[in-house]
Amino acid sequence: MKQEIKQGYRDSLKSLDTEEHIDLYFYRPLGFAWAKLAARLGVTPNVITVASIFLGIGAGVAFYFNNIWINVVGMLLLIWANSFDSADGQLARLTHQYSRLGRILDGMAGDLWFASIYIAICLRENQTSEFFMDHAWLIWVIAVVTGICHATQAAMADYYRQFHLFFLKGESGSELEKSENLDDTLKSLSWKKDFWRKLTLTFYTRYTRNQERRTPAMQALRHELTEKWPGEIPMSFRRAFRRASLPLMKYTNILSFNWRSIALFVAIFAQMPWLYFAFELVVLNILLVYMVCRHEAICRNLLKEVKDGDFDK
After folding, report:
1. Alpha carbon of 235 to those of 134, 169, 239, 311: distances in Å?
2. pLDDT in tens, 85-129
3. What is the Cα–Cα distance from 239 to 237, expressed in whole angstroms?
4. Contact between residue 273 and residue 63 where contact means Cβ atoms under 8 Å apart
């Protein structure tokens, strides 16, 4: 029985390569428990995702108040929301309930959490900070710029993680998409008959195209691999990519939820919520630029080796 639970837990993970330590020791075990309960009750992954949206927005509302105990409630709600965010993916992997809609909803959930948190911080600073009382517009401008940076950071972290999973576990173990394939699907849908599906896919296609636009060397490598090995990519290349990419997975994790939430909680406890914006704008943007540059360099080097025939030997 215990062995079955351990195996089920391992099966619910994307991969040990891409998991962060806080997730492995806290969120994934908690998410696995939620997933097992949901499977027993017949609850779908998308329902869990929607529930996480309400919890995350509730956390944002709690951060508006300049009261540490209400803020602690907000922190607990945000932790709860993220445990559901973990559970929906784990449930999907355990029950094979994968869907593109689920992936879109999952990404939207985090955006809605942090949108509510940003709004709460802005309203709070306009009421409690003398500086922002005198310059009420400034905190909103900072929030918008930070939100754009946040969206880019999260999108690129997710893209590099999916690219790593593609070579580690193959197409079935990754959610890596191509915008050209999404465009073909979009063209087959009708606004009249498939309005909501086409609307969500339109945003998702744009999201994917932006990821590709920011990774030219990666796209060149991807194209070369498709041309040279239209079937199965050699294991020698997969191993080489994993060796080069694995050390950078820790940066994709830092750009994800856990370190953001730690920085947010520290800023709230310090009663200077604006510090969270500074963390995203400075620390995480520096990390993003470094991660993109390193990944692009890896892809350029591997592309040269592929063209030179190093993996044919």
Report:
1. 61, 11, 6, 9
2. 999 888 888 887 777 777 778 888 888 999 999 999 999 999 888
3. 5
4. yes
* pLDDT value for 169: 77
pTM (2 d.p.)? 0.88
- Taking a C-beta distance cutoff of 8 angstroms, is the pair 277, 146 a contact? yes
Note the residue count of the chain.
313
b/e code 39-61 from CB counts within 10 Å (16+ = b)? beeebbbbebbebbbebbbbbbb
Closest Cα to residue 261, out of 74, 58, 134? Answer: 74
Query: Which tokens belong to 68?
Result: 């540490």
Q: CA-to-CA distance for 152 and 50, rounded, in angstroms?
A: 23
- Spatial separation of the C-alpha atoms in residues 163 and 122, rounded to whole Å: 36
Look-up of token digits 């040990």: 16
Q: Is the pLDDT of residue 57 over 70?
A: yes
Encode pLDDT of 239-291 as tens digits: 999 999 999 998 898 998 899 999 999 999 999 999 999 999 999 999 999 99
SS3 44: coil
Cβ neighbours around 106 below 10 Å, total: 20
Instruction: Report the percentage of the chain scoring pLDDT > 90.
Output: 48
For residues 104 and 244, what is the distance between their CA atoms, to the nearest angstrom? 29
- Nearest alpha-carbon partner for 38 in 99, 94, 105, 102: 94
Q: Please tell me the predicted confidence (pLDDT) of residue 273.
A: 93
Name the CA radius of gyration of the chain, rounded: 21
pLDDT of res. 195:
87
CA distance 95 to 37: 12
